[in-house]
């Protein structure tokens, strides 16, 4: 993803201000700050003439709009159930999505300098309030009635369909990328071993990395944003990035809190999540094929060539 020039940023600001104006939102252009870290949306933070802060999102590609339509349906369902805030879209067009900024701040943001995360609080000393509220939020989300969600238009996969989707994705990327034999064999063992896999599906956020988790000053989770990928599918999905950040010990602790909060687990849940992380390059490669951008293709090739997830 090429970094825009200063002139491109200024043009983007003017365009967003104009689009907001056309939809009845009067933004103070000088207040606008652009965030280019998202793969699917260009994002701006801005303030209106009454002092209300807003998030403005513009899809980067046509395929993103389709997922945005799914996100709108998801938000209508989850806002009725979750103990935390979710975005309330006030503008929804192919060129602009806008909603008032949620209270709180992300637990971490993408560090433009280092490529990792810049944490609001030190990662190694996050409080029980954070972990307990995250576990409770996930348990509530995952326990939303799938029948109600499907009636609301949310995409849904059975456990078998979710497993088949993983397998189909892996086969697809093998046609376009070189996958090391050792990694391919590990994926095959995971896909064909029944005991790894759950017998139930859950309502998942599906993109739960730190910038999408909003917390207050006490580190309590108060909101979740960016629901573009959400669907009813494999219940391990919302723990994969967490495993990458907090490793096996951290995940084991969170799963205990999750189960205590009412989340449903199974004997090999932790191992299944670990193997999903081992298959993460396949997801990146699939995204690269969708975008057809060489920078994403190169990132996927690099991950596939060097990926090494420690076994338990």
Query: Quick one: CATH superfamily of the largest domain?
Result: Aminoglycoside phosphotransferase (APH), C-terminal lobe
Structural class: alpha+beta
The run of helices and strands is HEEEHEEEEEHHHHEEEEHHHH
Number of domains: 2
Largest sheet: 5 strands, antiparallel
Shape-level CATH architecture of the largest domain: Alpha-Beta Complex
Strand order of the largest sheet: 1-2-3-5-4
- What is the subunit organization of this protein? single chain
Number of helices: 10
By CATH, the topology of the largest domain is Aminoglycoside 3'-phosphotransferase, Chain: A, domain 2
Share of β-strand residues? 5-15%
Q: Radius of gyration in whole Å, from Cα?
A: 20 Å
Q: Portion of residues in helices?
A: 40-55%
Description:
This protein is an alpha+beta fold and 312 residues long. It folds into two domains: 6-102, Phosphorylase Kinase, domain 1 (2-Layer Sandwich), CATH 3.30.200; 106-306, Aminoglycoside phosphotransferase (APH), C-terminal lobe (Aminoglycoside 3'-phosphotransferase, Chain: A, domain 2, Alpha-Beta Complex), CATH 3.90.1200.10. 45% of the residues lie in helices and 14% in strands. The chain has ten helices and twelve strands. The chain has helices at 6-22, 62-78, 128-142, 146-151, 159-174, 181-192, 240-260, 269-278, 280-291, 294-306; strands spanning 33-35, 41-47, 53-59, 91-92, 97-100, 105-106, 108-110, 117-119, 202-204, 213-215, 221-224, 231-233. The strands form four sheets. It has a five-stranded antiparallel sheet. Helix 3 crosses helix 7. The protein starts with 5 loop residues before the first helix and ends in a 6-residue tail after the last helix. The model has no long low-confidence stretch (mean pLDDT 93).
């Amino acid at each position: 993803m090429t970094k825009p020039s200063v002139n491109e940023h200024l043009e983007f600001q003017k365009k967003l201000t104009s689009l907001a104006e056309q939809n009845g939102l009067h933004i103070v252009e000088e207040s606008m700050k652009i965030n280019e870290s998202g793969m699917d949306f260009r994002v701006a933070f801005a303030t209106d003439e009454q002092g209300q802060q807003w998030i403005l999102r513009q899809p980067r590609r046509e395929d993103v709009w389709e997922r945005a339509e799914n996100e709108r349906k998801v938000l209508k369902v989850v806002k009725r159930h979750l103990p935390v805030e979710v975005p309330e879209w006030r503008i929804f067009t192919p060129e602009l999505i806008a909603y008032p900024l949620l209270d709180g701040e992300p637990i971490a943001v993408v560090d433009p300098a280092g490529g990792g995360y810049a944490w609001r609080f030190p990662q190694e000393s996050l409080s029980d309030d954070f972990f307990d509220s995250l576990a409770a939020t996930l348990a509530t989300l995952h326990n939303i009635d799938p029948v109600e969600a499907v009636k609301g238009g949310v995409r849904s996969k059975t456990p078998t369909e979710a497993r088949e989707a993983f397998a189909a994705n892996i086969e697809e990327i093998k046609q376009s990328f070189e996958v090391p034999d050792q990694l391919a064999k590990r994926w095959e063992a995971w896909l064909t071993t029944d005991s790894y896999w759950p017998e139930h599906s859950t309502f998942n956020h599906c993109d739960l990395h730190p910038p999408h988790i909003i917390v207050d000053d006490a580190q309590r989770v108060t909101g979740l944003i960016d629901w573009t990928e959400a669907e009813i599918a494999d219940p391990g999905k919302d723990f994969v990035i967490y495993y990458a950040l907090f490793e096996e010990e951290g995940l084991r602790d969170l799963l205990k809190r999750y189960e205590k909060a009412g989340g449903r687990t199974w004997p090999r849940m932790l191992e299944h999540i670990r193997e999903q992380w081992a298959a993460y390059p396949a997801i990146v490669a699939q995204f690269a094929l969708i975008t057809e951008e060489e920078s994403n293709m190169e990132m996927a090739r690099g991950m596939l060539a060097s990926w090494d997830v420690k076994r338990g």
